[in-house]
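Example record for the data management plan.
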Amino acid sequence: MKRAILLLAGLFLLVQASLFAQGKFSGYMFGDYYYNIAKDPNYLTLANAGANSMSANPGGTSYQAFQIRRVYFGYSDDISEKFSTLFRLEMDPTTTNTATGNKLGVMVKDASLTWKEIFEGSSLIFGVTATPTFDASEGFWGYRSLEKTIMDLRGVVPSRDYGVGLKGKLTGDGMLNYWVMIADGSGNSPETDKYKRYYGQISVKPNSNFYAMVNFDFQDRAQVADPYNAGKKVSDGTTTLSAFLTYMEPGSFKVGLEGFSQSKSNGFNSGTSLKSLSGMGISVWASANLNPDLAAVVRYDNFDPNTDSNSKGDSRNLIIAGLDCKVDKNVHIEPNLYYESYEAPTGGSAPKAAVVGRITLYWIFL
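Corresponding structural encoding:
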């Protein structure tokens, strides 16, 4: 009996070693030590209640802490020539384990099946999977360890959704491509209604230096009551348009520009009527290799979730500047400065800007 158990254990370890050798597991982590150089203790009372969360780290001035901000662990497999699968777990501070209070929890980030070449030049993806909107821009940005891209950071569009997508080439040379998807619209959470979110993307890559894409998505929702017209219900859907472009000299530098406009039907109550709630954001960034083991990166974001002139106190500017020190093949130390400023609410004072110094450590372990 013991020999049989040892034999099975040995076979299991051999299989696992084989899978690792094939590169089917993947994983990385990043976290940092941060120190709040400046932070307004009255932020939540001064800022507009509609946007009362800053992206800077918690705590007041002089607050300091060590933190792990993300752990990824994934497994991918080519089931056959036609099918592949991806399963990935994620841990970050926003994933709370309800069974253990505020301790870090783990969630399913990806769980998908891909039918490759379902027809010439196109693949079908089903399950919990990346959405088209900023999957490419995050890859080109390349510094998720410093911050999410603007639409992910501000919760404009989910990075993952549960549904079915089709992506592939519009031209045989792959210069022009498409990606469409229909999904629940609830991100990684279970569906709670019958309404769906519809995504579409066109991208172009004429050469190895330039890439551009435009995106559209519509989040359908149940109609809502109009408080100014008894018995009348109106649309509550949200439409998002976005674009991204980047230029790069491989091994030398990259620059990128991303912007979006979002409109929620009847989402803003002006006090006399319901109006569309319009928001916008723009992000521009650049990174340059100073030598093979050292790079510099800088980024500027402007975000305004409600552009109506009667809504003040909800827009903010974000600046990130840092260095990327490659101390080993898969280990990076990234000292960086994080600056976020805030708009003054109507009749009030703007919160003081948040200034945070961080030493971020990013490592790939699989």
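Summary line stored alongside the record: The first strand starts at residue 25 and ends at 38.
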